[in-house]
Amino acid sequence: MLSLLIALGLAASDSVPRPAAAQPAVVVHFQPALPMVALRLSLLADDPPGYAGAGHLMQHLLLPQLEERMARVGGRVQAVRTSDAVVYTVVGPAVELEYLSETLRLTLRAPASGTGETLRALAQLGQERGAEREIAGAFVRTALRGVLFPDDLSAAGTDAAAERLATARLPEVWGAMYSPERVSIVAVGDVRMDDVRRAFRDLPAAGSARLEALADTVAPLAGAAPQATRGWVARGWNASPLDPAAVTVTARLLRNQLRRRMSRSTVDVEHWWSHHGQAVALVVATPDTLMPTARRTVDGALAAVATALDEAQVRDAAASVRREMLFYARTPERMAEVLGAFGDRGLDSEASQRFFTAVERVTADDVRAVLAALRETEPAIVEVPPQKLEAN
Predict the structure, then answer these.
(1) Domain locations in the chain?
(2) Would the N or C end of the chain have less CB density within 10 A of its end CB?
(3) Using an 8 Å Cβ cutoff, are 97 and 104 in contact?
(4) Do residues 39 and 101 make contact, with C-beta atoms less than 8 angstroms apart?
(5) Residue 4 has what pLDDT?
(6) Do domains 4-199 and 231-384 have the same CATH topology?
(7) Nearest to residue 55, comparing CAs of 387, 344, 384?
(8) What is the pLDDT of residues 149-166, one digit of tens each?
(9) Half-sphere exposure of 164 (CA within 13 A, CB side)
């Protein structure tokens, strides 16, 4: 397997800028080791105002048809709604490139579904929204996101939006989201640029629908109480203006230190990055008896890392991040995901290579600058107490 570093370089060299005509941006990494290809199509789309969850609803409606088509050629399909895009990935034989592209092109039109299918899909979105409130780990992340990026609504939408979508004309909703200029294609496998561009020629024209802009609101989470057998302590800091590579290494250093100090707790420190901005999210699940200690440790984490910081720690953290990136991108679909995510954030086709290289160059001074900036911001704070069990 080629390393991600080499793969990213090849992808950048075999890519073309978005043309002036209404055509998708295309990035291709030629990987002939296996006669397979992973095709990733993303539509840069914010759901129309007042219709949060529309993009993910379309995915639920389309997925059964896509799965049936891919099964005919022994392939598979994945549908994901990220903070940046509506994303579909198909993996199948490279000789079936035209068929795979036809499958993905189906996602560029509003699904022709009946009322029953729509209501079932809306029910699935409702279950996803419920999980965000009922599962403690999802709850604290949703609450942090709501404070740090209030415009980044859940992929599953809102209750009010679901009511509108239940009666809306889906072609009009889709028409307000889609245009060919917002489509990006990433191909990883035994295919060439000319073949991929030919397969995605003549995309559907943009719709002319104009929906009334309505407000989407999310019920506050403050009064909610998810069931939890452990206590949860979470902090989030907005890091939008900071260097992404330095933020990633800083998050890894925070995670490393907190896991050493909190061996009886579960610690995650995450770098959130989308077109909405960047954030560092720190989430700890801990036994009830350790809640006060966990709170003090978390609140002092930024200062503690800054005090003990040295170049060796930074190099180790950067190397760990790079190894993880290499391991994550070991399959064609994962590599397509890595390459596509940078494009979905509005960055050029070489951004993934630059980021991978930049991580290795992060210094202790870069990390100190990130820590200092985070300490000057007001953190988002979310805590969930453990459920109290009462004996009969």
Answers:
(1) 4-199, 231-384
(2) C
(3) no
(4) yes
(5) 36
(6) yes
(7) 344
(8) 998 989 999 999 999 999
(9) 22
DSSP state of 151: T
Q: How far apart are CA 184 and CA 278, in angstroms?
A: 22
pLDDT for residue 45: 77
Q: What is the spatial distance between Cα 188 and Cα 199, in angstroms, rounded to a whole number?
A: 14
CB 100 within 8 A of CB 75: yes
Domain range 231-384, CATH architecture:
2-Layer Sandwich (3.30)
Angstrom distance (rounded) from CA 339 to CA 199: 20
Which tokens in the block code for residue 233?
Answer: 């302590």
Amino acid at 161: A
3-state SS assignment for residue 89: strand
363: amino acid identity, one letter: T
Residue from 279, 272, 298, 282 nearest 238 by CA: 279
Could you report the per-residue pLDDT of 315-354, keeping only the tens digit for each? 999 999 999 999 999 999 999 999 999 999 988 888 999 9
DSSP state of 204: P
Looking at the domain covering 4-199, what would its CATH class be? alpha beta
* Centroid of chain to Cα 181: 21
What does the CA dihedral 355, 279, 322, 310 come to, rounded to 10 degrees? 110
Distance of CA 183 to the CA centre of its chain: 17
375 vs 122: CA distance, rounded Å: 41
CB distance 21 to 158 below 8 Å: no
SS3 content of the chain, % helix, strand, coil (to 5): 50, 20, 30
| Alpha-helical regions (H) of the chain | 4-13, 54-71, 97-105, 115-134, 136-148, 159-167, 170-175, 193-199, 244-261, 291-299, 301-308, 311-328, 332-344, 351-361, 364-375
What pTM, to 2 d.p., does this model score?
0.89
Handedness of CA 64, 69, 71, 76 (dihedral sign): negative
CB 74 within 8 A of CB 48: no
Encode pLDDT of 109-134 as tens digits.
888 777 789 999 999 999 999 888 88
